[in-house]
Amino acid sequence: MKLNINHVHRGFLFLLFVLFASSAALAQTTVTGTITDAENGDPLIGASILVTGTSTGTVTDFDGNFTLNVPAGAESLTVSYTGYATQTIPLTGQTELDITMTSGELLDEVVVVGYGTVTQKQVTSAVTSIDSEDFNAGNINDPTQLIQGKVAGLTISKVGGNANGGSVIRLRGLSSFGGNQSPLIIIDGVVGANLNTVDPADIESINVLKDGSAAAIYGIQASAGVILITTKRGAAGDAQFSYRGYVTAEEIAKRPEVADRNLYLELVEETGRLIGADDPIAFRNNVDYGGNTDWIDRVTRTGISHVHNLSYSGGAGGMTYRASVNYRDIQGIGVDNDGFRQINGRLNINQSAFNDKLNLSVDVTATDRDADIFNNNVFKYAITYNPTAPARVDEAGYTVPDAVAANSLDTYGGYFEIDNFDYFNPVAIAQTTASERQQTNILYNLRASYDILEDVSLSASYSRNREDGINGSFGSRFSRFGGGAAGSPARRGFASRSVNDNRNDLFEVTATYNTDLGNNGLELLAGYSWQEYQFQGFNAGGAGLPSDAFGFNNLNVLNDIAAGQIAVGSYQASYRVIGFFGRARLSLGSAYNITASVRRDGTSRNGPENKWDFFPAVSASADLVDALSLEGPDQLKFRVGYGITGSLPNGNYAYLQTFGTGPQFPQNGGYIPTISPSSNANPNLRFEKKQEFNAGLDFAFDDYRLTGSLDFYVRNTGDLITSVIVPSPPFLFSSVEANLNNVDLINTGLELALGYSFGDLGGDGFSYEPRLTFSTFSTTLEDNGENPDFNFGAGGVQEFESSSPGSPGQNLDPVSRVIIGEDFGGIYTRRLDVDATLASGQYVFLGDGEADKVLVGNGLPDFSASLSNTFRYGPLDLNIFLRGDFGHDLVNMPRNFYGQQGNLATRAIENVIVNDLFLRGVTSAPKVSDYFVEDASFLALDNAQLGYTFDLGPGTGFNDLRVYVAGQNLFYITDYSGVDPNVRFFDDQNSNGIIDGGENALTPGIDRRSTFFRTRSFTFGVNVGF
């Protein structure tokens, strides 16, 4: 595919030219100086210097030096730096300044919260802020990976190394099993913004609102928590130009160990004897094609990727700006059609006027992404395909029977294929099928604020986030694989196209009153929010391409069109969310802070009697250091908070009776379509509501060298939204989306964040800073004593059992069971009698039936932990980051299917995973048991980075120059035998009719056979500033 960027970014390039050509500043006096750390004398890079009361300013360079043109009449400079006390420096005619700043003043650090900012001292809720200097580094393409493992209670799990795969985000465990489970994303104030609109290189900070009292200001969209992303902006002063770029090599970190030619043929012959084949040697020879093919090697590669970021920023005359262009060329590990090319442009402009009373800002970003979607079934069949067979029948060194060769040449274009069930040549799939996705995301955000009085300001904003996508899929006329387990001759030569157009429009108005009352402070906020989501799309597809040359770009040549069998569909939907909200924040001296908020939200998704509801919150904090004038600790702040948040129903029109096409009706020798109901209506559908209590402690000792926080929370989610089973009749269909009023989802947990700055160790410039996070999770489903409106599952309200995690042709037992009062995520199976199984060659279980299933594991973790270690010595810096999830189990389905000889008895063509040959000699078909449920706890060296910053000195034209090498996913310490031990929070292949969509949170902990291989990467990068 060719990446076409001109039509989206020509305006950005022109604007960059204008900014370069026009930036200038007028000055009366030049002031120079140096800013250093008061404790160790180190220069502070990037410290901000502003002419007090204006936006005129600059930042320090690598050596802590600055030069600033100060207008006549200026009386002072304001100097600030994150983590240091802000200073006001009087100007009394001096032109050279040596400024020292005191570190550890974390209480002045600004923290982004809902609809505003507060200092760290004023925070009354569970909020975590991560700045760009603390982000993970290396091969980062998903913004959420910047903070993976950095926030206690926030789990970011990416299973496998799919270049186009996203991360699963869960805050404080499971918040729902039918409603939304991912935190609300807000980018520069745009609620529900698409993560594809922001490049990781453009992010300044990420703030996580963890508890209900912090998130309640966002009402019905915040039940799973809130992640606030703030992008980088320009600063007043001289123009700054920077380049950030890196090159990455990515490879398989762990591959299944499958049998080679000799072991495979040995097992086939042995299986022939065990099942009583007339001639076991002939049984073996029938599947021996003479080669020794490493199928995993044939379908994978070392992916080479490169990423580039250019930015230009500055400001003068009340205006600041930052423009950036990012390009990513990401190559996945799949040998063909795996990766994406993306270009992103962003422009942030701020303009102040009328003595800074009026502030205007414009944020515009555009992203073009062309993705090649690799078919993960390629890896599935690379594990199981015959290691003696060739990829193509004309390859040298193989012996292919004439009949097989002729069929492969005539039917499959020369690719070796055997017409067996669920058995496909992985190289053929990779080379004869394709899936492409082209996406354009445009986000613009306009904001204006005006100080109508000294203490009163009004602000308004409007934003639109638009996503347009064009998707295409193609299968060659010679491709045997049609997407299912059986070869589909009717699906050969298939092609499809689909388009989508999604929009998110947001308009908000707020009024703020902020005043000092002596030693106390009061802030009042009132606001209105109107938001509309719109979705529309079209799709068409069919089979029967007369030539592969058409691909998916000329559907009118499909034979299905002539036969009247082409599939065509379209859709259009929308919903609105409207909210009125208010907040009061009171500071009593320096010790006490109280915050209260309320939001009234309404949505078009609910039934007519339940469209609106209230979501209140209250929180408070008391710093005992100030309250009791304690000596010793620097901070000892207790927090307590309570808040209610909500979650929307899944469907846009679930409260209405919907209709679709029905059976065709014969008339006048032909057929006419009919319209019939397509779902049950539930006019009583209402919000899912979560109540959360949080108690916390923020502490600091040893002149703020030791800092940390401790939080305990209890969450109760009621009126759970899910699809429930109902009788038919009286209902038209067997399920309906509804609220479960008789059960509550209960979450409890403990979170610890701890850090220590050792400063200058030994007086030689060596420093060490460790940071630890630790989180526990507990989730249960509890009976709340109310009479049920609907049953939970077919067995009633007390229990739900999922269907099996098998595949076509395998009748496997269910493994997941949710029972009232027990830990959520339980894995229940029968127990394997290993001795009896080995003795008989058939699976033998302890007990004799369904009642003998027992709890053998849990798919959700008990606790998570991370440890970041930062070392500095002169210009060198080293960061080693460890992360782990503990206490979760996985049902290892690849091992269950392919880890023993059961399939060889009837399907001798399949290969086996050799790490489980303890079951050698067992020839019955695979069945799930406790034997295949494994502890998947792990500790990973998630990220390691070594950097060197050059001291270039003045006159070189450089502000900074840094080079680094980094590694990601370097190793895992785990007992899990599969390719990836990361948590599976849901099963994406088994909805069971109880969950809308593909994420079934009722069945966590299933490692599917199509899991993408886990990868590790090595990166070399350069950062340059001018």
Automatic annotation (TrEMBL):
<dbReference type="InterPro" id="IPR039426">
    <property type="entry name" value="TonB-dep_rcpt-like"/>
</dbReference>
<dbReference type="GO" id="GO:0009279">
    <property type="term" value="C:cell outer membrane"/>
</dbReference>
<dbReference type="InterPro" id="IPR036942">
    <property type="entry name" value="Beta-barrel_TonB_sf"/>
</dbReference>
<keyword id="KW-0732">Signal</keyword>
<dbReference type="Pfam" id="PF13715">
    <property type="entry name" value="CarbopepD_reg_2"/>
</dbReference>
<keyword id="KW-0675">Receptor</keyword>
<dbReference type="InterPro" id="IPR008969">
    <property type="entry name" value="CarboxyPept-like_regulatory"/>
</dbReference>
<dbReference type="InterPro" id="IPR023997">
    <property type="entry name" value="TonB-dep_OMP_SusC/RagA_CS"/>
</dbReference>
<keyword id="KW-0813">Transport</keyword>
<keyword id="KW-0812">Transmembrane</keyword>
<dbReference type="Pfam" id="PF00593">
    <property type="entry name" value="TonB_dep_Rec_b-barrel"/>
</dbReference>
<dbReference type="Pfam" id="PF07715">
    <property type="entry name" value="Plug"/>
</dbReference>
<comment type="similarity">
    <text>Belongs to the TonB-dependent receptor family.</text>
</comment>
<dbReference type="InterPro" id="IPR012910">
    <property type="entry name" value="Plug_dom"/>
</dbReference>
<dbReference type="InterPro" id="IPR000531">
    <property type="entry name" value="Beta-barrel_TonB"/>
</dbReference>
<keyword id="KW-0798">TonB box</keyword>
<dbReference type="GO" id="GO:0015344">
    <property type="term" value="F:siderophore uptake transmembrane transporter activity"/>
</dbReference>
<dbReference type="InterPro" id="IPR023996">
    <property type="entry name" value="TonB-dep_OMP_SusC/RagA"/>
</dbReference>
<feature type="domain" description="TonB-dependent receptor plug">
    <location>
        <begin position="120"/>
        <end position="226"/>
    </location>
</feature>
<keyword id="KW-0998">Cell outer membrane</keyword>
<dbReference type="GO" id="GO:0044718">
    <property type="term" value="P:siderophore transmembrane transport"/>
</dbReference>
<dbReference type="InterPro" id="IPR037066">
    <property type="entry name" value="Plug_dom_sf"/>
</dbReference>
<keyword id="KW-1134">Transmembrane beta strand</keyword>
<feature type="signal peptide">
    <location>
        <begin position="1"/>
        <end position="27"/>
    </location>
</feature>
<feature type="domain" description="TonB-dependent receptor-like beta-barrel">
    <location>
        <begin position="474"/>
        <end position="970"/>
    </location>
</feature>
<protein>
    <submittedName>
        <fullName>SusC/RagA family TonB-linked outer membrane protein</fullName>
    </submittedName>
</protein>
<keyword id="KW-0472">Membrane</keyword>
